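Two records follow; treat each independently.
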Amino acid sequence: EANRILEFVKDKAREVGSGLNIVGAHFFHSIALGNQGRIGEAMESLTEGRRLAELNQEKYYLSRLPNTVAWLYRELGDPERSQLVNLENVQLAREFGMPEGEANSHVNLAIDYMELGEPARAHEILQKAESIFDEDIWYRWRYSIRLKAAFARYWILQGDLDAARGYAEASEEAARVHGDWKYRAWARKTLGEIALLLDDVDTSRACLDHAIGILTAHPCPTIGWKILSSRAELAAQLGDSMAADEFRGRARATIQSLADSVTDDPLKTRFLKSPDVRRV
């Protein structure tokens, strides 16, 4: 439905010459396409959106578009490129006086640093994002969901599972209030991971099954394969080889679908050879 509306917006914005709304439609369309697993199309929409934003000096979106590019790189197993683009976005957001764009870049950078094995740096950057969100209310409801999810990941890496669970539950509640199904599913995955670290297998299984149920009704391939992979690993630990094979097969099919959507062959290859994908 979002795709249909955004195509309509682009057509109408072109008719009346509204550059801001053309760029905005490309921005939101790329997010919708990315969450549908149509990554090549999402990248194309971002490229065109940025070209038009630079041509018309649409600073509002220039301070936000790179964040979305970085997100797609990270989803394709390239945290190094994601980090570079997020650092660029921090500078653009500061230059244009857009604190919300800067704060979101900090959340993204923290995730990159955690994936690159630098949790101390990640914590420092998460605190920066938190301080900006405390001062700037624009769109804060949305990005605070992601901030809490990132803090949960950080505390898992630090071994403080009580803190991790608190942040994951807070992220899930915020996502529930605002109708964010993607982050409700991701919070369930995180809580399942925490439960397994505490040897609570039943809770872990229930959380992961809940997450899979959410994504069955509200598909999001970019996180779906990761949740299915976690469920496969749990089934294998429980000695249920049939269930493990089923979940692993579904995860692999989702991975292949994502890879098939990527038009950049080196990026596709990097994704398929990334450590998380190779473990499936």
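The next record belongs to a different protein.
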Amino acid sequence: MAIKNRLQFGFFKQPVIEPPSTWDIGITTTSSNETFGIQLNGTSPNITVDWGDGTVETFTTTGDKTRTYASAGNYTVKISGSFVSNGNIRLNNGQSRVQSTSIIPTIPGLTSFLSCFFNCTSLTSIPSGLFDNNPQVTDFNGCFSGCTSLTSIPSDLFANNTAVTIFNFCFRDCTSLTSIPAGLFDNNTAVTDFNFCFFNCNQLTFIPAGLFANNTAVIGFDACFRGCNSLTTVPAGLFDNNTAVLTFAGCFQGCNSLTTVPAGLFANNTAVITFIFCFVNVTLTTQSYSDLLINMASNAASRRNFVQFYGGNSKYNLAGQTARQTLQAKNWVFNDGGLA
């Protein structure tokens, strides 16, 4: 009865989690007179930066904004403010000094995280909900490109970013990543481009099934996994729902540990206009490559004419040759290892 009464009179209330008011970036300088800075892009910024050394500045113009620190130490840079429109903030001077980031607060007018954490080579982790307060953002092009110490990605990192259309180069050269979390892009249904998204993630060994299942508007996977030379498997159905894709140019180029792929990897991608360089420097087994050709030839009538397909060093068997000829009748041009 006591518990019931307490509930009735509101003694047990859910804690209210207040959204952050500043974007806190932890940096470290190792000697005197080292510089850290940000770049502001967009219309009419009104951005306040507390540099963490007692200096606070408000910027109303675009361009590079920097601070030189008098002595070595750990500093917390705090950013807040707004743009009228088309806002973008990049950590672009002394990025290697960035050690940590808080969840980013609501920044009105911010529409792009283009190159936001580019070359933050000391950043090892990112918080869950990092971008939750800015659902209006449409662009993550190169956001974490060059974050060579980043070891993991929160599964809900982009959960609130339903307006995003571009993930090009997003995790390029994240050479410490070994896996991609399931559901990472589940809510990003407006995305059109994943070009170079995981390019040169050379420790990546795992791609979850259904990674792109909800991204039905995608038209480009160019070089998406290029240079992922630790990748040994590709899940069945990876591109099944991406029926609007036009190009897989260089998608698995340089994935030289890859020896088999699902026969139906491109079964539903009949709108594709090019697979140029798709498997360059890859040697699939004769059976795997042949099965891939046979599957694509099975719905040749619905596929484009004049398509280039690069099978790398992979060879095909007689059944694969027949399938290849079916596609060649539609003026497909092949570059591969030839008949086994």
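Discussion point: The helical segments are 2-8, 286-297, 318-328. How would you locate this feature using only the token line?
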